[in-house]
Amino acid sequence: MIRSIDQAPSAGPFAFPGLVFDDAPTDGEALMARDAARLAQADEAPSLLWFTWDRPTITVGRLQDPGRALDLARCALDAVPVVRRPTGGRAVFHVDEWTYGAVVPLRHAALGGRLADSCRALVEAALSEAYGLVFDPAAAAAPDGPPAACFGRSFGYEAVVDGRKLMGSAQRRTGSALLQPGSLLVGPGHERLGDYLAEGDGSGRLAGAAVTLTELLGGRPDPAPFRAALGRAWAAATAGGARPS
Asked: What whole-number distance in Å separates Cα of residue 200 and Cα of residue 25?
């Protein structure tokens, strides 16, 4: 089902236009096609859509060669779908995470700028408010994991806690809008990507390079405080509208 923030448990009485939580499990091809269509049809109103995978799925970046990055025979043997994202970046094994796709006009004053200053920053702020997390400064020490894996590296604009990556982000821009997806690790499972990498991950570097909300909080997070905090941050950021031409 698709719920706006006001319908989420304990989220409060106010709706926040453009912010939607789609809790209906959906296959990866459809999810990526939907994000691409949202970018192609972008208008002047920013939108932030959180969605749910129907099964463990590997995505690769738009310019990444899956044949070089992955052991595709192993993926097929284990019936793990491999899907190309409409944005760049590296491979992700989507298992236990909160995933979003934001579409924002480039002219939007608060959200249309650099990756570090856009929707990723709103998610960080909401996580800090909801769970008290403290993030490493930008360009802090990056994880050191397999180079073909998104959660094996950080590039200075992604969410890192105590030197370990919590959320991966990327952007794709057209002449008028941007698409920014984000994968926020909730529980374990993402490290299973190491089983499907062409280069392998015998040393388990991927597990050590990333961290989950469950690990940081000492238990599985209640999503309601995060959704409510994100709603407030979203309302404040979208109130300003576009920059003057």
From this structure: 29
